[in-house]
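## retry 2 of 3
previous attempt timed out at serialization; input unchanged, resubmitting
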Amino acid sequence: MEKVKLLGMTLTELKTLTKEMGLPSFTAKQMADWLYKKRVTTIEDMTNLSMANRSKLESACEVGIVSPERVQESEDGTKKYLFKTNDSYIETVFIPEADRATLCVSTQIGCKMNCLFCMTGKQGFSGDLTAADILNQMQAIPEYDRLTNVVFMGMGEPMDNVDAVLKSLEIMTSDYGYAWSPKRVTVSTVGLIPGLRRFLAESGCHLAVSLHNPIAEERRSIMPVQKAYPIESVLEEIKKYDFTHQRRVSFEYTMFKGVNDRPVHVKALVKLLAGLECRVNLIRFHAVPEVPLEGSPMEDMERFRDDLLRHGIVTTIRKSRGEDIFAACGLLSSKHADENR
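## retry succeeded, writing output
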């Protein structure tokens, strides 16, 4: 019989488990401490539990940490980890910088959104990750203690797996868990409004919206989600919340030559984002096989940035990292690993 995985359980779930197993009620808090504070890999390591209780737990449960199967390191220091989950694989990216270290985690195996410019979408969708799968990407890498930030911008659409995402965020930000400030975590979305509503209401973490084109019909041609959830409707939901203090909303904008980098797009962006305290991150496009798009030249990106700045919109050009190991924005795909198992 498959053992119950303790990693990814909330304190409430651990309390239910200990009650069902006839363990003392305080055992749940002890287990949470061992799982998320001390980050043990075996139940045997939970030394303040009696030997009898550890034995009882071991008969039915396991911690559930899964080591990465492979790591690739970029010439710029970025690392891409490959994890096996179920019968497939996911990728996770560690991005070290002088004053911070960011981990980009995945939330699904593949993705349903099928954005034209993203390799993850090209591999299709194989399943959702559990909260354990999400947290394992943090706990199982040797750089955990160096992490300053986590971004949910890897494989998959977080709001399409919102239950597992919110569960992992609870554990990350709760006193019984990692006790991280929500301000260290950013969750992205292409604009799935049902999940977005829950995330905004149930979490205090930062939000990043994959925008990429402010003109509806043009956005629809590269992002099918625009048909079901128009970006204007997404903005209506976001504007119901206060982003003038510590919580931030940003908009990701990959720039394509002659497609979304003209003055008309600046004008449309300014109109769309009017009245919202936000930031726009301009991203260089990384070529995807069989995709008829080309990245905007840097001088065009700089002009676009400067035009937005003149209109009072905080805008930055994001530095590209890990392109040589296919770890940069839009390049994550575990299809190759699946094919060569």
